[in-house]
Structures are given as structure tokens and as C-alpha cells.
What we know:
The protein contains 5 helices and 19 strands. The protein has 356 residues and is of the alpha+beta class. The chain has one domain: Thrombin, subunit H (Beta Barrel), CATH 2.40.10.120. Strands 3, 12, 13, 14, 15, 16, 17, 18 and 19 form a 9-stranded mixed β-sheet that branches. An 8-stranded antiparallel β-sheet has the order 8-7-4-5-6-11-10-9. Strands 1-2 form a two-stranded antiparallel sheet. The radius of gyration is 19 Å and the shape is globular.
Amino acid sequence: MIAAQVVLYMIDMKARTLVTLVLAFAHITGHAIPLVKPGCDDTSYERGFRDLVHKVGIMDSDERVETSVLVNRGVLTKAEEQRIRATFGNIECPIYRWDPVKKKDVYHRHSVASAAIVHDKQTIITAAHVFFDSESKEPIQYLSKCKFRNREIPAVVTSLNLKDGMLSGAGAKLKVPGRMVFGTLDPFAEPNRDRAAIRLAAPVANAEPFEYDSSDAYPTEKPNALINISIPQVDMAAAKRSSDPHYEYTGVIGQRCSNRDTYPGLPRVTPVMKVDCDSFGGGSGSVLLTRAANPEQGPLKAVGIVISGTDSPELRGKPFNRDNHFTRALAINSLFADEIRIAAGRSGVQTADVSQ
């Protein structure tokens, strides 16, 4: 296991001077990006990236591009790109630390991951670990402060239907109908259950929710049948920050990639996909789309979410390897579909295997 630590030295933004990026590698434990919101001072921004931890998966040549490039290549239509901007975005949750001098919790950094709207205009799916502190491995304390931000310009920002403390302590639950369903309360130890369906506090007006397959058919393994949609991942965002300091909150990236292996689901585990999608910090929770008919035509539907990469620095750019160089994703099957419906407050789920 490797780690990546990003240290940003930021000079006065008013002078629009160059941002110097220094990459140093240590221990990897998660995949969500600690970020701060636009408008925070440069010191806070640097602190937000200081303890960045993630797992990386860059196979062969890096194929991550802006979705506008996919439109130019004919992979997406302009209407589909606009739909993605309204229906896709990120989760951002502030993490606080107790300050013994001030004798109160003070802001430390943000945890951020990709998320997509499915089922209806008010339900999202993402990686569960965005709601946990990657340092302490404990649930984030102030869940009521978590927000979803879509990629429209200007963006729609809405709170999540979560309450402080609902994932921790004696009263912690995997599910609260009409609010949320988690695949695990220990996503770092159980990465194959690292999924969450969350109810937003309000619908996103322009969203066109992605359809999903509620059957247990394995996602296609046809070459390039997947389109992975993500927020700008940390290396890409860092490269553009000097010219566009808010790129993290407006950009959308995508790529065509393939599901190379699918492993059956076990109790409370959806099928695990080993995909060759390139992934860096921020790719957690990114949605895997495919065409209903074939890779070239038909409506887009969601078939899974990316959880993390698995590689080491020396493997970056090497070919996909199903043993040690791939990106892990979780497929949407009947179990995950039931969890989505429960989070949305819908009854009549297909299975009973959604544990408290």
C-alpha cells in the first residue's frame, strides 16, 4: 500500500501567482478528497489538502478528460452532458477537531467524494466512506452539515437528510427509511460494502435521475461499454487551480472504460467489479454509466459506483492486472436497488437482506 500526500504552497490569489504542487508519497487509507469550499482563505485550503489520502488506479495511458471532450468525440451528446451536470455532483462533509485551548470543536478539513442522483430527484448514491474520517476511521460527527453540490452553473447546493450522530454510538444504524441506507458502518475494513444511498433534504429541480438495473444480471464486460463520470480528481484539479481556482466545483470529467471481471455478491455485498477506469483522489462514488442497448447507442443507465483504486506508485501507467492493478467498483443489483428505494422512502422492496 502506498500513500500520497499533497502539499500546496499558495501565494496571494489576488496576484494570480503560480501554485506550486509538491507530491510526496506515504500510507494510503482512503479515497475521498479533503477539500474546503471556495472562499476559504489560502491557509485553510492548504490545510485541507495536507493530509490527503487515497488509493490510485491509473492504467496504461491516462484517459480521463473533460466531458466536453467526450461530446466532441461522440461518446456523449450535448444534451447528455447537460443532464450529467444537473444530475451528478459531489458530497462535501466538514470534519471538526476538538481544540483544547478554545474548548470547542473547530473546523479541520472537508471530506469530498462524487455522487449521482438516481431513482428520483432527491436520492443519491455514493461511497459510504465519505461520511467517515479517514484519519480516525470514525463517523463524521456533524452529518447535518454535509451537503450535495451538483455541477450546474450556478450549482444547486442542498443539505442531506442526515442527523448528527446517526452513524455512531449505541444507536448507530445501517438504515433509516426515508433518510439513508449504508452497506457498512466500517467502510475501511469492508470496502466491498462501501456504498450508501442518501435522501437529500430537497429535490434538485433540473435533475434527470439515472435509471438503474434492479436485476442480478452482471454488468456487461464488453470493451469500452462503461462511461465513468467523476468530479475533477485531485491531480487534475491541482494542475488547473492557478487558472481556475473553483475548478473542483464546476468541472466534470469522464472516460470510456471496461468491466474486466465481476465477482458474485455475498450476503450484504453487491457484485464487485474490477474495472480499468483510471481513478485518483475524488473518484470515490463516481458513477459508472452504460448504454441500455450497446456501447454506441441507447439511453444511459447507472450500473455501479467506483470505490477506489488498488495500486502502488510503481504500477502507475502499467497495464490492467486483475490481481493488483485495477479500480474497484460495486455493481447495482437487486440488493443495492432495494437500499436505494428504502433511502427514498419507498415500500415494496424486492428483498429482505437489508440489515439494521
